[in-house]
Design goal:
three-stranded antiparallel β-sheet, Rossmann fold, 7 helices, alpha/beta, seven-stranded parallel β-sheet, binds fructose -6-phosphate, 31% helix
Length: 236
């Protein structure tokens, strides 16, 4: 594992976009595993800028996102599909049909999970997975649990996650209580993983996740077993 500390969020974003950009250059039909939340916004803006300048070509790239809230569809501006379209996909030349986000409105969420895992396999797995980390150690929406769940599955969000994510909603009551998330198998099978975190509030959980015990109570700790993880952290 490489743990890189940078001065500020701008540098974190630039480094992240350089790594993802290099992947796109090296393998123009690569599969990008993507995340939402506030951490990747700077990297997505930087990737859009590189595409605009003609430095990157996403026309052959495929993508799979980590997660989606249950019950929110593309028309809801808090859905992760909406977030991805607005913050990245509409700003680069990726084909929308090559982008995938779990469907949180599927009538059968178990089947949706199975189909999502089958889709990731059919794409040949993930070349590079971008992750953020929750204050409780979640990656995707794999919340602290007694076990690491392998498959894409539905989860009840932890109180701390609902609290943290309420900043994006009109009120805490509006935050969905459930989400569908990629499981640990697809994440751990990604060829390369980049986890980004910024702000002092993430320091403790990063220490637990990367230097503490490997336990499903700290879901990100499983990444200690992955052969190619880069953590990029900025305190400011
Ligand atoms: C989002 C996701 C989450 C976030 C995490 C950190 O797709 O998978 O695990 O990465 O909640 O969120 P931010 O970046 O907002 O601190």
């Amino acid at each position: 594992m490489k743990f890189i500390t940078v001065e500020n969020y701008e540098k974190l974003s630039k480094m992240t976009s350089d790594i993802i950009g290099a992947q796109v250059i090296l393998k123009p039909d690569c599969v990008l595993g993507l995340a939402t939340g506030s951490s990747p916004l700077g990297a997505y803006a930087s990737l859009a800028e590189k595409c605009e300048k003609g430095e990157l070509d996403f026309s052959g790239v495929r993508s799979v996102n980590l997660d989606e809230y249950v019950g929110l569809d593309i028309t809801n501006d808090q859905s992760y599909r909406y977030f991805m379209n607005k913050n990245l996909f509409e700003k680069i030349n990726i084909k929308l049909e090559n982008t995938h986000v779990p469907n949180g409105c599927a009538s059968d969420l178990k089947k949706e999970g199975e189909e999502y895992d089958a889709l990731i396999s059919a794409l040949g797995g993930i070349d590079i997975q971008l992750l953020g980390i929750g204050l409780d150690g979640h990656i995707g929406f794999n919340e602290p649990d007694d076990v690491f769940v392998k498959e894409t599955h539905t989860v009840k969000l932890d109180e701390s996650t609902i609290e943290a994510n309420s900043r994006f909603f009109a009120s805490k009551d509006d935050v969905p209580r459930e989400a569908i998330t990629m499981g640990m198998m697809s994440i751990m099978q990604a060829k390369k993983i980049v986890l980004i975190a910024n702000g002092k509030s993430k320091k403790d959980i990063l220490n637990k996740a990367f230097f503490g015990e490997i336990t499903p109570r700290v879901p990100a700790s499983i990444l200690q077993l992955h052969p190619d993880v880069t953590v990029i952290y900025s305190e400011n």
